[in-house]
Amino acid sequence: MKYVDEYRDGAQAQRYLRAIEELIQRPWTLMEICGGQTHTLIRSAIDQLLPEAITLVHGPGCPVCVTPIEMIDRAQAIARRPEVILVSFGDMLRVPGSTTDLLATKAAGADVRMVYSPLDAVKLAERNPDREVVFFAVGFETTAPANAMAVWQARERGIENFSILCSHVLVPPAMEAILGSPDCRVQGFLAAGHVCAVMGYWEYEPIAERFQIPIVVTGFEPVDLLQGVTMTVKALEEGRWGVENQYSRSVTREGNRPAQALLGKVFGPCDRPWRGIGEIPASGYRLRPEFAAFDAEQKFDVGEIEARESADCIAGEILTGLKKPHECAAFGNRCTPDHPLGAPMVSTEGACAAYYQYGRHREPPVAEGEESR
User: Fold this and answer.
1) Sorting pLDDT into bands at 50, 70 and 90, what band is 170?
2) 69-168+256-299 has CATH 3.40.50.11740 classification
């Protein structure tokens, strides 16, 4: 298929790998932001094909993974109410809260349903005027416009039995938090193309300038990522910083202005806790006061629910690039997709899930002649 197959072309991928080999003169550590990019890198073994001097670490760009544990518990508390239909994307159903997940809450009798769009939740509320329909709204700037539109339409159509449990987070503040940490390993970023398709990349320019770091907006196919790595390494080797756009077929500097305008009308910035990471200032969205009637956290009075992370889960260190999934003592034994300790093992965009799915938890085969060593 045009625009897909050409970005999975093996010969083109090999050309970029050779170009990187020619460019690299010293070790570099790069972070891809998006969990979808992580899965492509691991599934295609790009991380293993790159020169040893390049280390790829995995960022906090899995929206399910960074949804704080207390929000899972709040969603469960709301779902247990007999008048409520709680709806969510499928990824959220198996993410563990402090004691259980939404799928188990559903099995215990709660009316928990999966939808493919928040607008489906609005229609569900319209068809069930005697029930309260709550959409668990998680994600980055990518999914925020559709959730904002759902709230906007509910207000315009007078649907009073619809609300959202809002747990939106934003990419630029997370990047700044990572770069501002004294333990930061990251020397270059591959930015998430779908976020930039909505927001543009003008927000990243001050970050690149402040931290003197290259940021390359990158797509999601193997050739996209290899070209993004090439551009990042070239900038690093030349001592340049700034923002470049590999994903020009989908992203402009300005982004989608109508979507940004809608976001500004429905949401305002707020401090937001990130699962495993902690609170990052101005890193989230919350509903503006004029949309308070659609705020499930206020409507059902669950804002005071708090929870603690599993002491055995090092998701925060993985999501900030300090460690990789296989460096966790629980990975692949006490923490598996069937029995996850943390969200990165169960989310379809989680780094731990990628490492597990593609066999990185297994011991490498012993080479011939090495058995006796």
Assistant:
1) very high
2) yes
